[in-house]
């Protein structure tokens, strides 16, 4: 790389808040224009779809060196659930592998071979659940999206990070396609391979930037917390998250939402399609608000048009009738049981002193986050701040606030940074 290229690359990186990566991975041209990354350096590998090929990949990656880049593609919006339909990996000495978890549903052997290896993922919390389902459970991770947040990058999507830090442009045209498609088209496979092409290079550059800012230990604590977190429990009353639910006020109408949502979910699971392809959230809410008395009345509602067959209409009307027939005692309550503080909008009326504490605490956290150049929610979760403000420790001190933060799951670095500011605000 020439001196002019070096200068252009470093200047571009400084504007985004990142440190320049190692020589050899920069893609910024002489005029500062990022370079499109069009092909994997080793070409597009064949998709691993049988046990013999999988055994070869396991051996190759076990013999590789350094961290392993890992990504997974799901079929959100097309299929039921969030299972993985393609797993991409890259490691020094092993190259890139594209694995079909439909043909090879048990990847625990691969996970075991890499158990002591650092896994590099982007937005790890999105991919870890579907990787866990196929036996891939890391013990050590580096999350490049979270690293970007802690380092103060304004845009932390993978494409933005690769461009801002390494100077390459990733093609993102296939991010929302139906990855359950078989066979997978070559352009999709190219896109998938490129997603892990520079992930370890990005990790190395972000590690240096975090170290420069004195935040590397903070990031490691966050990564450890993600890797050690247990699987999330099933959501209680998931039907309450129906889009447009805020329009539904009466308990009988809420029962219609629940019945239609449950029927839709059962059908979607049986057909292995996204629930939204069976019946839209908007249609569910319209039926709940209207309480149609006949199939004819139901057909007139948005979302239940002429394209829907009589059998489908009958099953939706039957769900409505079941809700209408429920006794009062079996109707859902207006809101979910609250386990923490009430909504902040009600604090001024219910507890003016708590509202004042929350206002002061939010201001203190905002100022501290700005000074540390990171999002407030990564410095400390808003829920933790609310809980401490609603029931502050007594007496208020840095020590008692620290203990309260720890009880709510805050990491050591968060407690060290936040406790003094919160204690002052609470006092």
From TrEMBL:
Domain called HRDC: residue spans: 250-330
CDD domains: RNaseD_exo
SUPFAM superfamilies: HRDC-like (SSF47819), Ribonuclease H-like (SSF53098)
Pfam families from the UniProt entry: DNA_pol_A_exo1 (PF01612), DNA_pol_A_exoN (PF18305), HRDC (PF00570)
Compositional bias of kind Polar residues: 1-15
Enzyme Commission no: 3.1.13.5
Superkingdom per UniProt: Bacteria
SMART domains: 35EXOc (SM00474), HRDC (SM00341)
InterPro entries named among the record's database cross-references: 3'-5'_exonuclease_dom, Exo_C, HRDC-like_sf, HRDC_dom, HRDC_dom_sf, RNase_D-like, RNaseH-like_sf, RNaseH_sf
Residue ranges of the region described as Disordered: 1-35, 327-350
GO BP of this protein: nucleobase-containing compound metabolic process
GO molecular function, a single term: ribonuclease D activity
Keyword vocabulary terms for this entry: Hydrolase
Protein name listed in UniProt: Ribonuclease D
């Amino acid at each position: 790389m020439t001196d002019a290229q070096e200068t252009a690359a470093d200047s571009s990186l400084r504007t985004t808040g990142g440190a320049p990566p190692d020589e050899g991975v920069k893609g910024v041209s002489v005029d500062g224009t990022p370079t499109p990354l069009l092909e994997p350096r080793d070409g597009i590998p064949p998709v691993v779809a049988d046990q013999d090929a999988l055994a070869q990949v396991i051996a190759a990656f076990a013999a590789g060196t350094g961290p392993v880049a890992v990504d997974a593609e799901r079929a959100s919006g097309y299929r039921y659930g969030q299972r993985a339909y393609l797993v991409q990996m890259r490691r020094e000495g092993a190259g890139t592998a594209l694995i079909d978890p439909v043909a090879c549903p048990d990847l625990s052997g691969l996970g075991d071979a890499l158990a002591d290896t650092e896994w590099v993922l982007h937005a790890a919390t999105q991919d870890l659940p579907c990787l866990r389902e196929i036996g891939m459970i890391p013990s050590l991770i580096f999350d490049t999206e979270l690293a970007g947040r802690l380092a103060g990058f304004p845009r932390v999507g993978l494409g933005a990070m690769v461009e801002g830090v390494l100077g390459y442009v990733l093609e993102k045209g296939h991010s929302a396609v139906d990855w359950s498609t078989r066979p997978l088209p070559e352009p999709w496979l190219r896109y998938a391979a490129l997603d892990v092409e520079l992930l370890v290079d990005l990790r190395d550059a972000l590690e240096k930037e975090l170290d420069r800012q004195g935040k590397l230990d903070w990031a490691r604590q966050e990564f450890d917390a993600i890797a050690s977190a247990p699987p999330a429990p099933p959501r209680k009353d998931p039907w309450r998250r129906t889009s447009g639910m805020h329009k539904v006020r009466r308990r009988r109408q809420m029962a219609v939402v629940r019945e239609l949502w449950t029927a839709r979910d059962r059908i979607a699971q049986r057909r292995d399609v996204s629930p939204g392809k069976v019946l839209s959230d908007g249609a569910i809410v319209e039926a709940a608000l209207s309480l149609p008395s006949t199939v004819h009345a139901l057909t007139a509602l948005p979302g239940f048009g002429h394209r829907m067959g009589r059998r489908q209409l009958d099953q939706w009307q039957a769900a409505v009738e079941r809700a209408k027939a429920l006794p009062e005692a079996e109707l859902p309550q207006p809101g979910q049981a609250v386990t923490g503080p009430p909504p902040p909008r009600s604090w001024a009326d219910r507890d003016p002193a708590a509202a004042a504490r929350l206002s002061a605490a939010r201001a203190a956290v905002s100022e501290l986050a700005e000074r540390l150049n990171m999002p407030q929610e990564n410095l400390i979760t808003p829920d933790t701040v609310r809980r401490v403000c609603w029931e502050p420790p007594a007496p208020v001190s840095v020590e008692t606030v620290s203990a309260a933060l720890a009880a709510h799951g805050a990491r050591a670095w968060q407690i060290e940074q936040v406790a003094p500011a919160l204690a002052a605000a609470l006092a």
